[in-house]
Amino acid sequence: MSLIVEVAIPIPLNKTFDYLCDDEVLVGVRVKVPFVRKKVIGIVLAIRDKSNFYKLKSVEEVLDKTPILDKLTLSLLFWSANYYHHPIGEVISTALPKNLRLGKKANIKKITGLPNQTKQSNFKLSDEQNIAITQILKSNYQYHAFLLHGVTGSGKTEVYLHTTQAMLNQKKQVLVLVPEIGLTPQMITRFESRLKTRVVTIHSQLNETKKLDAYLMAKNGEAGVVIGTRSAIFSPMPNLGLIIIDEEHDNSFKQQSNFRYCAKNLSFIRAKQANIPIVLGTATPSLELLKNVMDQKITRITLTKRTGNATLPKISLIDMRSNTDGALSKMLIEKTKQYLSAGKQVMLFINRRGYAPVYYCTQCSWKAQCDHCDSTMVYHRHINRLKCHHCGGEKMPEHTCPDCFRQSLKVLGYGTERLEETLSSYFADTPIIRIDRDTTRRKKAFTRHLEQINAGKSCIIIGTQMLAKGHDFSNLAMVGILDIDTGFLSLNFRATEYLAQLLIQVSGRAGRHKEKGEVVIQTRYPDHPIFNFILSSHYTQFANQLLKQRLSAMMPPFSHQALLCANAKNKQNAENFLHEAVVLLKNIQINSVEILGPVINTIEKKSDYYYFNLYLQSNNRVTLHQMLSTFNQHINILKLKNKVRWYLDIDPIE
Ligand code: ADP
Ligand code: ZN
Ligand code: ZN
């Protein structure tokens, strides 16, 4: 007699499907099944002897003898599907490496070697580091969440390494999650060279064969440590003993497309399910985490001092209100000169790639705009093209103004490329290393740039946010922060929190070894209260003040949000779909949930689609989620449903 198997299929529907199966089958294995007119790969979620449906089709092939997804991983995936109101088939598909999704064999191609002669550090741990390690290990291998709040360069990574080795000694595995740009060769080498185990990495740059190998080595326990970016949260690790999240405050732990999960939030769930400790490290804790510390759900451990003899850098402001000549103040140029002649490195931080962000007419009000987005186009000089940073669209720059026909077109503002040009006019003999997405597109280019910096020779480094975090350049003495003022103008209620974190992280690159470093911030808003705290390195006080503001406005983390976003080529359809949604939501009638909107997105149009947002907010997470579930069940009554693209974003950050 055949059995009935319930199968999750990667389609955007909140449904699973029953099939007949004659072969031996276990929960968690992959099966090839007929679906509509195609064959698709699904995962068996349950095995039964009855189904509520008639005329079931049969499983074509059982692809695995043993489960690809174990019970704990499956329960994390169910939890995620439920919490993010996302179809289980798509959730599972996000969690699997592509080769498994495609039905390829679950075999390891090449087992990476075990390290033979691990290195030990040549310094003694500080008292603070020792206390941190003891406290984490005292959690007795049970669930306990720790915030490792250590100033930049305080030796947090050293704490990770020691607690990880202690776990490995107990035959446990450790999962380390790092931000998208935090997984540098330096970070990987530090783990590989210090730990007596096989370390595998999981990130988007890896080719599919290596990704599958890493996944399978995690799954069969051969890898003691998995270091990866957000999707690594789904790596199956049967002996998981500890989860570490580095740079906890970083936004890249949240996926911003399709299945919009937050790997940091999921790591708490995973740690609870596995009953193991979790450590979240940062110099600039997110307000969410600080609130959890206040509520005594998370234990804070602090590292207040930089390691060795290093101290925190001196930070000062340059008032740019009186500065009329371009991106660089005289003072900053002067200081750069001094440090370079002392044989030091200087980093100038500007968070905008390209030559100039605006190409405009000096005679009328014309600006080069993207035809498909509501945004100006950025001039890229080396290719002489205008590029849209939202949709990737490109065009040749006009020679005459399309509005007034005069030859009066000019660029305005600075990007990394123009800054490089300006600097080379001042410092003709100094190497300038520009690191942005344009100069690191080619494979290994980023690594080569980092090697050049690490060689330690005096140079100027132009950095975007790719360099804001995690890097440890020993000869870097000064950081100049050029253009952060747009952060003050943002409409996102989290903008000041992000700005404070960015300023401290970037500043943290200076003077990490021996000599005291210096940080200079150029701004047109020198009186902004943020600087009172940043200049004196009082992040926590600043964060507490922000928390008070959030509390009085009942904003997150004191309330919970969900975003319903609709977008369509027809602007009216997108807006009206959300009006229909409001009617449905009001019918569900849950008093404690506030409905805000619909409002048009700050960037109205992207790639020809108009975006509208509807926010739901409540102090009570449970009622908010009940409302969303009911909404999801009835969404088919919305008439415009098939005329728009829409998604739900739980705990949105943008
Ligand atoms: P963080 O992760 O907090 O920014 P790191 O762990 O990268 O800091 O440490 C900064 C630097 O100090 C690294 O080069 C590291 O090797 C070194 N270091 C760490 N702990 C100590 C210590 N106890 N004594 C001396 N140097 C240390
Ligand atoms: Zn004109
Ligand atoms: Zn565009």
From TrEMBL:
GO terms for molecular function: 3'-5' DNA helicase activity; ATP binding; ATP hydrolysis activity; DNA binding; zinc ion binding. Belongs to the helicase family. PriA subfamily. It comes from Ruthia magnifica subsp. Calyptogena magnifica. It catalyses: ATP + H2O = ADP + phosphate + H(+); Couples ATP hydrolysis with the unwinding of duplex DNA by translocating in the 3'-5' direction. Binds 2 zinc ions per subunit. Zn(2+) 1 binds at C361, C364, C401, C404. Component of the replication restart primosome. This is Replication restart protein PriA. It holds the Pfam family DEAD. Its EC number is 5.6.2.4. Keywords: ATP-binding, DNA replication, DNA-binding, Helicase, Hydrolase, Isomerase, Metal-binding, Nucleotide-binding, Primosome, Zinc. Zn(2+) 2 binds at C370, C373, C388, C391. InterPro entries: DEAD/DEAH_box_helicase_dom, Helicase_ATP-bd, Helicase_C-like, P-loop_NTPase, PriA, PriA_3primeBD, PriA_3primeBD_sf, PriA_C. The gene is priA. Initiates the restart of stalled replication forks, which reloads the replicative helicase on sites other than the origin of replication. Recognizes and binds to abandoned replication forks and remodels them to uncover a helicase loading site. Promotes assembly of the primosome at these replication forks. NCBIfam families: priA.
